[in-house]
Amino acid sequence: QALDTYGAIDILVSNAAVNPVLGGTLEAEEEVWDKLWEDEERRQAVMSSMGIDRLGTPSDVASVVTFLCSPAASYVVGETVVVAGGAPSRL
Question: Choosing from 29, 41, 75, 91, which is the catalytic residue?
Answer without folding.
Answer: 75
